[in-house]
Records
---
Amino acid sequence: MLVIGIAGGTGSGKTTVVNKIINSLPQGEVAVLPQDSYYRDASHIPVAERCNINFDEPAAIEWELLERHLRDLKEGRTIEMPTYSYLTCTRQAETVRVEPRDVVIIEGILILTQPELCRLMDVKVFVDADADDRLIRVISRDCIERGRTPQMVIDRYEAILKPMHQLYIEPSKRHADLIVPQGGNNRVAVQLLTDYIGSRLHAGLDR
């Protein structure tokens, strides 16, 4: 099993890179564990206060469960991945069954901040992008998917996203084996990564 971690700031193009990798490989060979699925449940917090949750700090993620699930997959066991609603800030009753695959991708803004999780990865990737480009993508995504207004997104960016990026995400870049500038639009870097994955699969994942 080849475990790939793909990190980067909010709106950097991580999902684009992940999708390009998946589409370049035979169907069914890749399993994806999004960090966002492992946000801690906030159902115990009053609804009016949930808008103050900081989703961009490591404490927001149940890392222990993510690491345990990754180990289970590496040992050939199927997992039940949690699902999370940004609209209610709660973990849902439904889970997603994920079976072991030749390639497992862990994707999320904070995954390279966790030393133990990094030790379980074979390749660590940081998707880099200009701050203005990231903000534009975040505004578009949050207004459509999370019911926020543009001003709400900008206020949250200034108060939380930007300082958390500088405190946690940007420094985690030094742990990456490969940095992909220009986000998912860097076709050369994405092709190099997919070629490497393909060669490992063809060689039976032998190191």
---
Amino acid sequence: MKKIIPNHVVIIPDGNRRWARKNGLKSFQGVLSGGNYNHLKSLFDEAKEAGIKYVSLWGFSTENWRRPKIEINSVFSLILSNFERFRADLAKDKTRFRHFGRKDRLPKKLLEAISILEKESKNFKDFNIQLCLDYGGRDEIVRAVNNIIKDKKKKVDEKEFAKYLDNAEVPDVDLIIRTSGEKRTSGLMPFQSVYAELYFCDKYFPDFSAEDMKDAIEEFSRRKRNFGK
């Protein structure tokens, strides 16, 4: 029997700050550990090896602006510090990159880096990485509605509405993985994840390994999905 593999996996990397406190570190150091490039690359490589085509990582939510400035800056600085390495790997591995979320509040340098990555990788199809920055599910829906109004649409069905969402070119979510033991999705892709399977891991994200990723995929393959039938 052929193993069922999720096409689109979303990771909610929770528990970075609690991991830091547990290890006697500053909260921003947990962010740096969880977002370490080698750590993320190992998860992406495991997903690709398993046959997954799309992996989305929630890096910064619309609510995260309330956090201490040092934590916010550490997220953005971490992305920029890994820019050239990530850029080279996208080209080498024929991986497409997309940004989901608002673009009006992110730092200019970060937006420029995102634009370069999206432009240079737009023709790649082997694997797809989506980074959710300044992303919130409700915010995404509100932005979509405002753009529909702007386009003066008088009637919209589900298919048409989906075209206005950030993931218009990306299939709906099959599996949501959340670390740290918290059992909620926190509004991540509410429209796109109505039939997503949920997998909760007790480990804090810095400790979530490629082997844990493999376990989540294996668990997904054992579940039966009826889609309301």
---
Amino acid sequence: MFKYTLQRILYMMLVFFIITMMCFILVRMLPPLPLDPMRPETTVVAARREAMGYNKPYLVQFGIFLKNIFTDFNWGVSEKLYYGQEVVKVFVTKMPPTMLVNLYSILWTIPVGIGLGIFAALKKNSLIDYGISTLTMVTISVPSFVYAFLVQYFFSYKLSWFPFLMNSGEEYFTWPMFVSMLPAVLSLSFGTIAGFTRTTRAELTEVLTSDFMLLARTKGLTKAQATIRHAMKNCMVVVLPSIFGSFIGILSGSMIIERIFGVPGIGGLTLNAINGRDYNIFMLTTCFYTAIGLAASLVVDISYGFIDPRIRMGSKK
């Protein structure tokens, strides 16, 4: 298990390095943004460009870029959106709303999704099962931004329960702010609920028809006892890793959802950086999303070995 984990970490670092290098070189091949001589921050931006070797070969620039990150965690300064400000400081201020919106979404979608999956599995081949399965497939097939527009239309426009956009300010733990986050939370929830429902239903249905479940029933256990003691335990071998991956992924957010509901998070910052050609911000957010995706897949893979001791990842026969 240790050998497999070490290999996965090394592979993850290699993939992260390659993606970062490709993005860096492609970004630096673009024409640099013109400096504004009328602004006092221009001296800071010009000095940073000189320190990062903008006039040197791309590989040399990439080496300077990595050195600045590992020695001082210096990602440069914003050259357009937040002119002259440290990219890291801007990034940190955008993190809380992204984390909260996704955390609120996951905290209630996990029990709802797993509960629906269990209910559908226990009612296998019934109208309830067919209805839940059909609704799950339709929900997964629809993009999240479609739900965003539906939530805005019904809950914000027709019913006037929520505002159209998230409230401004940094008082994230107040009730008005929480209410303003709910449209984005609901929009992110539909696909997650459907995913957990489908996974739980498929795994539990397979476990309920296994031979050891028949043996448990013949020993005198009721259906409820056999399901809780044995079936759910085996079903969680597949469900729990996806939960771990979801919690790692709460940092990533959803760029489109954040843009639609005006969430001042990392997603909106990334889109603004792309549209505004703020290359340093784009590099930081791109590396961040890449790291989160790789870390989530790593946690999911490794968690299988800890949840089910029968699994021996990376072992050779």
---
Amino acid sequence: MKPALLLWPLLAAAVLYLGLRRFERAMVFAPSREMLAHPGTVGLAYEPLMLTASDGVRLRAWWIPGPSAESPVMLCLHGNGGNLSHRTDKMRLFHDAGAAQLWLEWRGYGESGGRPDEPGLYRDALAGWAWLSAVKALPAARLVLYGESLGNGPAIELATRVPAAGLIVDSAFTSVADMSRRILPRFPPRLLSLRFDNLSRLPRVTIPTLFLHSPEDDIIPYEMARRNYAASGAAQKSLVDLKGSHNEGFLDAGSAYPKAIRNFLASLPKEAPKP
């Protein structure tokens, strides 16, 4: 066979591979660069920061002081859509629940540099933890890791690596492979490059864990919350039902959402266990 004839199948395979990777990224990451609000919009004092991940990517972050100097601190890792400016309602709720907050912007989102990918998001989460440890000298007994939807992947991964007082798993899937089986049942998950395999990591998470999920979630089925909860290695864990859709459940649940956050923060031990 002539070399030119061999080249066409290789080119076709390369185009198919690149198309698959692009489609996969588009399904998982939905960033927005436009900033629509900030914590001050909802009456919160805050400090804008630029952090640096271990690979040099610059990351926007917002530090929101708590009601007191001894407030628990939530490292907040948001979901796959929009950017930090779409989470100001949650910032207000968390502040009212008694927490200080560091909200981290993913690479490729908002005012952060780079492009999102799975290893990069793990580095980003670690950069947030490193800033709290180095700059705020935050003891592990005051640190609570919070993940929202896709952000649970980095939050859970971080919980297996660093000491913290607790973990909040808000509307998490079990894994990208499980989500692909639900959305594209005929697509073979072995072709995926993204994993975000929360289910396999949760048995190694032993710190107190709060799971939040709506049985009416229209994107991530409630059955995944039950599986995540069952897999968790935490001796102290609870699953609180929200109401409404995936993106609005924290609002549709009314007082149940901030109450669950407040009660969880108040229940944490004074000394943080090791991961």
